[in-house]
Amino acid sequence: GQIASARGLVKTYGKGEAAVRALDGVDVDFARGELTAIMGPSGSGKSTLMHCMAGLDTPTAGTVMVDGEDVGRMSQRRLTRLRRTRLGFVFQAFNLIPTLTAEENITLPLDIARGTLDRAWFDTVVDAVGLRDRLDHRPTELSGGQQQRVACARALVSRPAVVFADEPTGNLDSRSSGEVLGFLRRSVDELGQSVVMVTHDPTAASYAHRVLFLADGRLVGELEQPTTETVL
Ligand code: ADP
Ligand code: ADP
């Protein structure tokens, strides 16, 4: 089954002469239990697609369904609730709170949404991401790769329906990237999560189950079981 989908998705920025059609009629399905990568050149609409899927941006036309909900028809209030309780986010710039420990950063979404921590799930995620001995550290005491793994654990702590990762390895060296990507892949294969990742890095995309290619706001191709060679 699918965890998220778009039909006839159009997003235009600006008006009249200056209007930019960032998405030009995208039909797409994201499968449950898969790591899907969205690739394409700079300006092709990758971030816009992810933001529309995640309810961070309002489509100009078309339908977006996430976890059975019509995101376009939800009130801001319910959308915020959906994002906080059923979606997870990982960004290029880790976006951790510097004054909080790794553990406090990971559990922060639950504090904000007034959710209850599932301790067994927290332990599973922390062990899978390899952060057991770093939980008391603050972000400045962690490497970039470790900080991004904290951000990944934070994205997973509420056991979301889908995790959206926007260039998660954009600020990392290749070794740290491998650790983050390996974890995102294992979060799907071993923990049963669903992940949508935007990247322009073929190595990152090779970790995905499926790669979608965007160009000029349109879906122009798709690849199953990619490898570094086939993605290039
Ligand atoms: P990508 O993530 O593939 O680099 P984006 O989705 O960021 O592409 O951008 C797609 C197009 O939409 C680009 O032409 C970009 O300049 C334009 N765009 C994106 N966000 C905005 C915005 N907030 N205002 C105006 N134009 C935007
Ligand atoms: P492990 O395979 O020991 O669980 P890894 O973190 O190295 O740990 O990899 C997790 C998953 O990511 C692997 O099972 C594989 O599917 C995928 N993977 C690992 N390395 C690569 C790579 N270089 N390119 C593409 N996918 C990879």
UniProtKB/TrEMBL annotation:
GO MF entries: ATP binding; ATP hydrolysis activity; transmembrane transporter activity
Keyword set includes Amino-acid biosynthesis: no
Record-given protein name: ABC transporter ATP-binding protein
Keywords on record: ATP-binding, Nucleotide-binding, Transport
Chain ranges of the ABC transporter domain: 4-232
One GO cellular component term noted in the UniProt record for this chain: membrane protein complex
